[in-house]
Amino acid sequence: MIPFPILRSNVLNIVKFLSRHRLIGAAILSVVLAAGCGPAPLGTSWAGLRVIGEEQHILVAFNDRLALVDPVDGKTVKLRNQEGEIRLDDQGNPRLWEIKQNANQFFAAPAPLDDGRLLAVTYNQVLYTIDLPTARVENGSGTPIPNHNGHIVADLLEGDGLVYAGLSSKNLLALDAEDLSVVWTAQTEHGIWSKPLLVDDVLYAASLDHYLYALDARTGDLLWKLDIEGAAPSAPAYANGRLYIGSFARKIFEISRQGQILNTYDTVDWVWGAPAVVDGILYAADLVGNVYALDTTDGLREIWRVKASEMSIRPTPLVAGDYVLVASRDQRLYWLKRSDGSMVMDNEGRPLLREMQGPIFSDILLIEPNEKTDIPGPYVIVSTLSPGQILVAYTLEQGRFLWTYSMQ
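^ thats the sequence. predicted structure below, dont judge the formating
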């Protein structure tokens, strides 16, 4: 159980947030309220997503399940034996790459380990090691992380034999990838809701306590911490030797690797998702639906700003080809022109957007053709809060619907 002062602080922060930003919705609030004791109620989760291997299989963590999805057709991947033949169950049906853990709930996408295994963690800090080819859970009912309060909603990060996990109440942990013991704990004053960033043995972690932390990845020693004036639910982006992060201070920061603020840009509202930096241009969105393009070579100079949605945009913008794609709380996916932020038009002259069954909190994925993924062109994958539309795939060009993956 989380101590009451920590729980109260979490709840008050989110209540204040929702009082001004109702558009994020009750899902986040219900999860935080549930964090006082026991598992979060099933149905309050957003999906954790990760692309795995050259086949670009999509690893999905949602509610009480993990699944591996083929991006070509949106079907659960079939398990195969060493000869490449599909494995069958006692009734002659194909065995599928799917794991269900009943009372447990997943928010975080599992981390791929160097030896071909996965490490998954539940909301309640129970770790599972999984053999990737067979979907076999190796440690039975799981291994709890001992003596740490809080829950895990952020994706795990693996690096050089360690796995890093942020806790929703406070602190960042490093775990040994082999025996799952806690190697070190770095102290924060509030929760970490995002996967940290690892660059050259330095770990960068953003916290709701208004600080960005730089840590020695091997020891957890604090190198520096920087006040970014507001809560930061997402880790920084790294490009051209610099860090870029938005916060609830209504700002985007450009920061040196030594922890110095180099430039700032004022946004209309709070920034939740991490920026995307492509070809020297930073793309970000805020919680009242604005999308920004800033020139990182010229002090975060604004290139364009558009009001793409009337509701909040939490995910990081996806930049691909001539497009910037953003997904909103209004259950829509929007295509914008990378050149000026204006809406892309479809073949009939209408704005190119797609309606979903639920709000979109998870980042958009891009799947591109290669020798292992037989698709005619790039696909974009969107995840919603609706169990009937855990994943939806469209073509990048013109947004043609391809398939839906559900967990009913």
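DSSP finds two helices and 33 strands in the chain.
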